[in-house]
């Protein structure tokens, strides 16, 4: 039986939230990367983080900074070629 450690819950929820905001991965794909979590668990995590952000302005500011700093599209990446666009 899996045990839930409360010390890991919020950091995992934040990581799932950031994964959704910063990638094009589906809820199912994100859940798989987090130990086979169900897509509904990922959705619940995202909603919980958004709820906490509405109540805690410091968390909201911090997450906005994280999204901006970690966003792979914040710089011009014209030199990057997507794998499906490469000539073979």
Question: What this model shows, in words?
Answer:
- There is one protein chain.
- By secondary structure, the protein is mainly alpha-helical.
- The protein has a single domain, classed as DnaA protein, C-terminal DNA-binding domain (Chromosomal Replication Initiator Protein Dnaa, Chain: A), CATH 1.10.1750.
- The chain has four helices and no strands.
- It is globular, with a radius of gyration of 16 Å.
- About 8% of the residues have low confidence.
Task: Give keywords.
single chain; 88 residues; mainly alpha; Chromosomal Replication Initiator Protein Dnaa, Chain: A; 4 helices; 62% helix; globular
CATH homologous superfamily title: DnaA protein, C-terminal DNA-binding domain
Question: Over the alpha carbons, how many angstroms does the gyration radius reach?
Answer: 16 Å
Per DSSP, what share of the residues sits in E-state strands of 2 or more residues? under 5%
What is the mean pLDDT?
Answer: 84
Number of helices: 4
Q: In one word, what is the shape?
A: globular
- Mind describing the biggest β-sheet? none
Overall strand count: 0
Q: Could you list the spans in which at least 5 consecutive residues all have pLDDT below 50?
A: 76-82
